[in-house]
User: Fold these one by one.
Assistant:
Number 1:
Amino acid sequence: MKPSSPITQDLLTIPRTLPPGPINLIGMSRTIMHEKLLEIGTPEKQVKMRVGQIWQWIYQKGARNFSQMTNLSKQYRELLSNNLTIDVPQVVSKQSSKDGTRKYLLKLAGGHEVEAVYIPEEGRGTLCISSQVGCTLTCSFCHTGTQKLVRNLTCGEIVGQILVARDDLDEWTNLNSANDKTRLLSNVVLMGMGEPLYNFENVRDALKIVMDPEGICLSRKRITLSTSGVVPEISRTADEIGCLLAVSFHGTTDEIRDKLVPINKKWNIETLITALKDYPRLSNSERITFEYVMIKDVNDSELDALRLVKLISGIPAKINLIPFNEWPGSAYKRSEWSQIKKFSDIIHRAGYASPVRTPRGEDIMAACGQLKSETERQRKSKKEISMEAGI
Ligand code: SAH
Ligand code: SF4
């Protein structure tokens, strides 16, 4: 492991210049929007109604400029556009996989880039969003972890990913906000680039907007946040967000997990399991998902499966087996399918659901762990990646 490989929140700062001038409404809470509208001269008696109207235009109807807000007077729309903006990330490129998966490369303020992936499934569609540009953690099997430049996404940039995907799916017209089942974008997972619990406040505030009943209106049970194990923030996730939790487990001994998920050196398996047992929202209907990437000859033995079952005993859980997705320069190989089957059978026999996650969008490098912005300026060398993988 390189001495500089951070397992803490230290962000490697990259210059971030926000354009001066009008303030973006996307990502603002209702309270702040209220203040801003007052500040720009909205009459006090009207301001509550105006917040409601603007909120609906943006989050229910997909308005991208004030001129679309036809129930506001022309004069008021002018006042708004002189002081405020409605900015979403810019779609630099979109790739579509033969399986229907769509990957968006998005440009943010300061020119930084992240990716979001839309995965259509029978009767639902999941958008996988990013919470950071890159990631400060350096999981040895993850492409994002090889990206050196990192910054947190703002609340507006997190919400903005959902808005642009919905634009692309043309899902604003005929949207029945009360009925998740008919939606193309019905679920959101924080499994893109970055560690969401190292950007807790922005992620929380963004998800509040995503769940707002008068806006995007996704149920908290249709949002899953995946963490590599930032133990101190785990119970806050239940208390302050209330969404479902997934944990990137990947190793059944500290020795293996230290190599795969280096944050384990800070919060080891025992500490993590204790935090999960105490997870305030734990129940059979709200089980924790244990993500387990299947890497050939590293963590895929039958003994690993048995240890995993023992470790999680007593926790309402499902185990999501993810065949390792290779990326250029990766140090590992995907487990054999026969081995994945053996592993999954052991877990299944112990009474847990153990779906194997079918890799989606592999042809466009959109599968789990393959995300990495194309234009990042510094790359880790193959040697550095191998050193971190401990091989
Ligand atoms: N940082 C968070 C969320 C993003 S990663 C976390 O680690 O949980 C989303 C999931 O993809 C995690 O379970 C991660 O371990 C997994 N993943 C990363 N690289 C992968 C790869 N190359 N193949 C398969 N899964 C991978
Ligand atoms: Fe970061 Fe998650 Fe990748 Fe680890 S697996 S490097 S925590 S994005």
Note: The chain has two domains: 23-85, 90-389.
Number 2:
Amino acid sequence: MSLKFDQSVDAALKLVNEHSGHQYFDVLVTSLAQLIDADYVLIGELDLVSHQANTVSLWCEGQLGEKLSYDLEGTPCDKVYSGGICVYPREIATLFPGDQMLDDFGLQGYVGKSLKDAEGKPIGLLVALFKQKDQACEDILGIFDLFAIRASAELERTLWEREQQKQISLLQKKNQQLDLSHRVFEHTNEGLLVSDENNNILEVNAAFERMCGYSRAELIGNNPSMLNSGLQPKSFYDAMWQDLSAKGIWQGELWNRRKDGETYPVWSSISLVKNDQGEISNFISSFRDISSEKALQEQLYHQATHDYLTGLSNSFEFQDHATKAIAVAQRASQHIALIRMNIDNLNMVNSSYGHIVGDMVVKTIGEKLKGQTRDSDVLARLGGDDFALLAGFDSFHRLEKQIKRTLQLFTETIHTESGDISPSCSVGISILGEDAEDLDALMRNAQTALRFAKQHFRGGYSFYSQEFEEQARRHDKVENRLYKALSEGVIEPYFQPIVNLKDMSVHHCEALARWTDEQLGQVSPAEFIPIAESTGLIQKLGELIFNRSVQVFAQLNAELSREQKSSVGVTVNRSPGEFNFSKGERPTTAEILTQHDLSPDLVCIEITESLMIESPDEALEQLNHIKNQGFSLALDDFGTGFSSLSYLKHYPFDYLKIDQSFIRDMKEQGEDYLLVKTIIQMAKNLGLQTIAEGVETEEQCRLLKDLGCDYGQGYLFSKPLPQDELFRFVRDAEAV
Ligand code: C2E
Ligand code: CA
Ligand code: CA
């Protein structure tokens, strides 16, 4: 090698050293190409995974070329990379037929050397290619080596730098993630707690501090058991640890205790973290305070199981608690009774005073009942005016006493802003073991007993009896048939003459409903009227009887007037249920009379005291209306109820009907006789005419006449008669 050549190599290497990075390689390939007169020089970086070389710098026919990647397979470089330095002076393309590029560029010679790092690991290649034969020769290998050493060092440095850069950006990314994790940890609303392998607390977040009331400093180093409420049994924690070790995670609800001693429910999730060796390194627990969720749940549950008005259990909860209580009672052979209570007059209170007052009555009764029941009793409001009590008892005598006390409570006057209200209540009782074996049967039987009590002694109580079953079936049957009978109009009035006791002339006739049913035969009004009243059918029935009576008496009086005989009036019964005060319904109107040309003074309306007891003011208004239309009014069954004189004074009655129970056993100077005498006297003083009901004997008739009773009604004169017989009877009576 000549001196000149040495100098130019030195200069070239100096120039290369003045640069760094990719310029270093560019200057290196350029200088080397010029020194050894190569057509191509390249530095490639090895990608061992894909077995490729990626050019870092390429000198190509007098200038720097674009970077490229190429497969090492089948190329002379493959040999270089595995073998160190290679020299092929000529016909390289023939030697490596798989390397198409060699042929394409018309290359002959090749020198290549692998670039290695300090540990001897190949990292790249330095390659020179020649178009002329034999230029790739031993002579240039010295220079080539010098450049290869430089290229190796720089490539290693570049790779190291790149690796560093990669690590730095990885670290940066990790840091960012850590920072984010930390922020999440601190700011999440869930309480978080991290403990070590011995479950000593390492870290907690702010939400956890707030939740438990302890500061981070107070918690760190301690065992989370310091938060235990003591409400979970040991078995709970045993199961938790078992879950944790089996599945690595436990989730569930538990109660913790705050620093101030208050316990609170949390939803907790505990995860077990293991290190690379599979040993437990940490526990991470999250806690969500579910106090308000629980409170809401409880509130919803309470709403679903309790009656909003009285706060008592509703039928749903009653069913549940009663079933359990029955099971306990059956095991312990205890006596237990189901007591069903019903407010008789709640509808009336609602319609007369409005629902607010009605609600108040229900609430007050609920409170009274609650005050009277023992903890072991199950009390509920089943609906509207219905209450049920399942109570244990030791003797029938005591049970009866308790029921009487309950009834007394019920009837105590309730003072409201709208006035004083006296509720009435009926009670039905069924006994476990005697009447029924389960809750369903108890409920049914107590209901049957209640119905019986209502029908026979409203405001009283009745124990269940199997006979009621028969009666209840009969009741249902009559009710069903009654609907049909009314829609088909098969119920009709019979008329019972009311006779003037002075001259025995027929003065009025009382219309009495008669019903002969295809299946049931003749049904007594004493049976079907109460059913019509309790089902609301009474309105239809009342209208039917009234209209029909008006028709019959319009016809009768037209005939009587043609025959120049004195007219006969008709008396029609009207039940309290026909006066719907809240709807302002008026059961008796004069319109129908005009249609049939019957004078209202020939029509009398009979009502009973109960109308006035239930709604005194509205009753007065309605009775005045009836009177104003020209009808007369009779007070029926006098003597059986309260029979208060004040009714007679304040209400516009014309007639007072003395109940047949006084007439039946009336003997001269006997108790009833004296009572009847007083009633007649009193009525006369008030300007009322009297009608005695149920007159069956001449003796009764004579006594009544003596006492100055105005009219008599009863079998002595006539039974209730169908229209044609009535017409005959009236004519015959006139003829006497
Ligand atoms: P009430 O209004 O007291 O009618 C008189 C009842 O006494 C009638 O019974 C009648 O047949 C019966 N009676 C009449 N004279 C005698 C007698 O000398 N001895 C005996 N032992 N009884 C006598 P009935 O027809 O069975 O009616 C029973 C009740 O049904 C009536 O009692 C009345 O409260 C009700 N009722 C009947 N028809 C109607 C109606 O159309 N509307 C309404 N709201 N109630 C009616
Ligand atoms: Ca009557
Ligand atoms: Ca009567």
Note: The chain has 26 helices and 28 strands.
